[in-house]
Amino acid sequence: MNPLRWPAFAAFALAASIAVAPALSADTPPTHRGSLLPLVQPLWSELTSAQQSVLAPFEQQWNSWSFAEKRGWLQLAERVPQMSDEQRERVNERIQEWAKLTPEQRRLARQNYRLAKRLDPDERQAQWERYREMTPEQRAVLRTSGTSNTAARHAGARTGLAKQAAQPLAEVVKRDGKPAKRPRRVVY
C-alpha cells in the first residue's frame, strides 16, 4: 500500500467503526455482569465487634478470602463465647498460629488433617499415644525429619502424625500388617 494512503485508510477505518458501533449496541442487549462481591462477603468491616475480636489475627487477610474460607471461621467465632476460658485461650493460640502460616502451609495442613481423619480411629489413637510417649528431643526430630510437606513441621507437630500424614494413604499400614481400610471420601 502506498504510504501516502495510510492516513486516508486510518480515517476511513475510524469513521466506519464509529458508524457501526451505535448499530451494534442497539441490536445487542447490554450484558449484565453480576457483582463478585457476594463471593467475598462478609467483608471485615461487616463483622460484628465480637467476631472481629476473635478473628483479629486475620484482619489483613480477611477481605481476600472466599466465602467458603470465611464460613468455618465465622462458625468458630460464634462458638467462642460459650467456651471455657481454657478453651478460648487454646482457640486464640490456634488462630494466631494459623494466621502466621502461608497459603501453601495452610493447604498442606488441611491436606494432612484430611489424611489423619481417614485413618482408623484406633490407629489414630495408637499413633497419638506413641507421639505422647516421645521425649521433647524425639518430637523435635520428628518435626524436622518429616517431609517438607508436613503441616506438623510448620505448625509444631501438634497432630503427632507428621510422617504418616506425609505419605499417601496407600502406604499407611495397620499394626497387623494389613493395609488400612479406605474409608468413605470426606469432602470439605
Considering the chains and any ligands shown, give keywords for the structure.
188 residues, mainly alpha, extended
What does this structure look like?
The protein is mainly α and 188 residues long. Helix content is 61%, strand content 0%. The chain has helices spanning 6-27, 37-40, 49-54, 59-62, 67-79, 85-100, 103-118, 121-133, 136-145, 151-155, 162-166. The protein is extended, with a radius of gyration of 28 Å. The relative contact order is 0.08.
Number of helices in the DSSP assignment: 11
Detail the poorly predicted runs.
147-160, 167-173
Q: On the 0-100 scale, what is the average pLDDT?
A: 74
Oligomeric form: single chain
In terms of structural class, how would the helical and strand content be classed? mainly alpha
Number of strands: 0
Order of helices and strands: HHHHHHHHHHH
From the alpha carbons, calculate the radius of gyration and give it in angstroms.
28 Å
Major sheet:
none
First CA to last CA: what distance? 62 Å
* Spatial shape: extended
Strand content: under 5%
Helix fraction by DSSP (H/I, runs of at least 4): 55-70%
